[in-house]
Amino acid sequence: MVLMYGQALGNSLEARRLYQEAFPERRLLNHRTFANVVQRLRENGKFQPRFSDRGRERTERTLDAEEEILNVVENDPGISIRRLSYRVGVSPFVWCGELYMNKAYTPIMYNEFSI
Hints:
This protein is rod-shaped. The protein folds into two domains: 2-44, no CATH class; 60-101, Arc Repressor Mutant, subunit A, CATH 1.10.10. It has helices spanning 2-7, 12-22, 31-44, 60-75, 81-88, 92-101. Helix content is 57%, strand content 0%.
């Protein structure tokens, strides 16, 4: 891919055409993919994208709630998901991530049909 881009002198459409000629049995990629791979290789020296800069940034509310979530769980380890969400005022998705990252949870296997 990178060789085709170089052979096409940085023209991603031409690189795509050359790639298609060289590898007719392979899936044809978008022409922007060629430029993106070369750019990524120039920036961080790797073909794989960096995953550290992905996703939404954490909000101040999330950061403020982190300590409160951990305190509530420490004081009442058996608290339910709904009650914790209500008490802290944060979505369960937020605090589940916090508990998981801080290893402050107890995984429980539960089968409501077992006697």
